[in-house]
Amino acid sequence: MNFKLKNDTFLRALLRQPTEYTPLWMMRQAGRFLPEYRATRARAGSFLGLCKNPDFATEVTMQPLDRYPLDAAILFSDILTVPDAMGLGLYFADGEGPKFERPLRDEAAIMALQVPDIDKTLRYVTDAVSQIRKTLDGRVPLIGFSGSPFTLSCYMVEGGGSDDYARVKTLMYNEPKLMHHILEVTTQAVIAYLNAQIEAGAQAVMIFDSWGGVLSHSAYHEFSLPYTQRIVEGLIKEKDGVRIPNVVFTKGGGLWIDSIAATGCDAIGLDWTMDIGVARQKVGNKVALQGNLDPAVLFANPNAIRNEVEKVLSSYGYGSGHVFNLGHGISQHTNPEHVAAMVAAVHELSRKYH
Ligand SMILES: Cc1c2[nH]c(c1CCC(=O)O)Cc1[nH]c(c(CCC(=O)O)c1C)Cc1[nH]c(c(CCC(=O)O)c1C)Cc1[nH]c(c(C)c1CCC(=O)O)C2
Predict the structure, then answer these.
(1) Would residue 214 count as lying in a domain?
(2) CATH code where residue 194 lies
(3) Residue 295 lies in a domain
């Protein structure tokens, strides 16, 4: 039991301890679907302006919690702050998503990569974590996060988003040693970064392997999973006598959940493509599961949303170990009232399973 928390349902579910209902939060819960987020972003001038100012980061982290009775808060930041701290120069071109000024395009750039001094380069993140914890005042737990080394490498090599991952996959197949070097340095950076978030007050951490699912079976097991496993092994597991659970989310990773469970993680994030009941059978009592409603369900009407929520809950079935979530980030085109319908449905309909 976490004595400082008024609602620790989320942490108990991650540790597969009994709960009264299924807790929930949403990936990208602080974001453009909320008018209040768009207003704060306009005041800050840009998305990075929000991330780099702890007052703004705290304000937008709290917005979804003030609107909905969610069971967890997530640090407002981005996975790409780590490569930015490594000197790649993150920027957001209007309407084009993230980009790097200095992507990794040759051997010299790759061999020059270094683990950044987190205290110096990412202080704005750990400051935001402490400030959010204070503002939360024990309402719900705060989740810290990072990208997985493979997913970060995709952006670092491509220089931005990609449809085919041609550059990073070419490097991976032509020059596996160079690819492993990027992954090695990034792994060390991510371990230091997540542990700094935990020291600053993050009560659970999540690793986003958002693009792991674009890999072949063998490439996933060579270039993504072992590095995720090293992170899981390197994380601070307990602070002030309280467990700090971790979640590994691999979008498109449903085929590999047995290998993911074997990393020793506490929970696996599922996208919407896999039946969560089948996933539960496969992983047994090893890990908790987080997910897995298709974010597009929120475009439908509240009745349809309720039906789809019930399907996920009943497929998971009786007992603890499920954190309800979307299978990926919420769309910016979502109607905020539909989110209210989903939150109410999860809290109400899940009680019969506990
Ligand atoms: C791949 C990835 C990124 N960032 C992230 C991932 C992994 C998760 C995933 O798979 O979605 C992680 C992330 N990004 C953001 C959060 C905040 C916490 C949360 O509310 O979940 C988290 C956890 C805020 C954000 N990160 C970004 C926004 C939108 C920024 C804005 O224009 O206001 C937010 C709220 C920008 C971003 N950042 C990134 C992209 C591809 C984009 C553009 C996306 C888009 O335009 O919808 C990289």
Answers:
(1) yes
(2) 3.20.20.210
(3) no
Q: Tell me, what's the ipTM?
A: 0.93
Per-residue confidence (pLDDT) for residue 1, from 0 to 100? 43
Query: Which atom of ligand 1 lies closest to the CA of 151?
Result: 1
Range of the domain at 43: 33-279
pLDDT, one tens digit per residue, over 10-66 is: 999 999 999 999 999 999 999 999 999 999 999 999 999 999 999 999 999 999 999
Nearest CA, atom 30, ligand 1: 47
Asked whether residue 275 is domain-assigned, the answer is: yes
Ligand 1 contacts CB of residue 330 (under 6 A): no
- The Cα–Cα gap between 324 and 53 comes to 30
**Cis peptide, bond prior to residue 292, ω within 30 of zero:** yes
> Which atom number of ligand 1 is nearest to the Cα of residue 41?
33
SS3 286: coil
- Does residue 332 belong to any structural domain of this protein? no
Q: In this predicted structure, what is the pLDDT of residue 94?
A: 80
Question: Which residues have a Cβ under 8 Å from the Cβ of 317 and sit 6 or more positions away?
Answer: 277, 280, 353
Is residue 32 a known part of a binding site?
yes
Pairing of strands 204-209, 246-250: parallel
Task: Say whether 333 counts as a known binding-site residue.
Answer: no
What is the reported pTM?
0.97
Quote the number of domains for the chain. 1
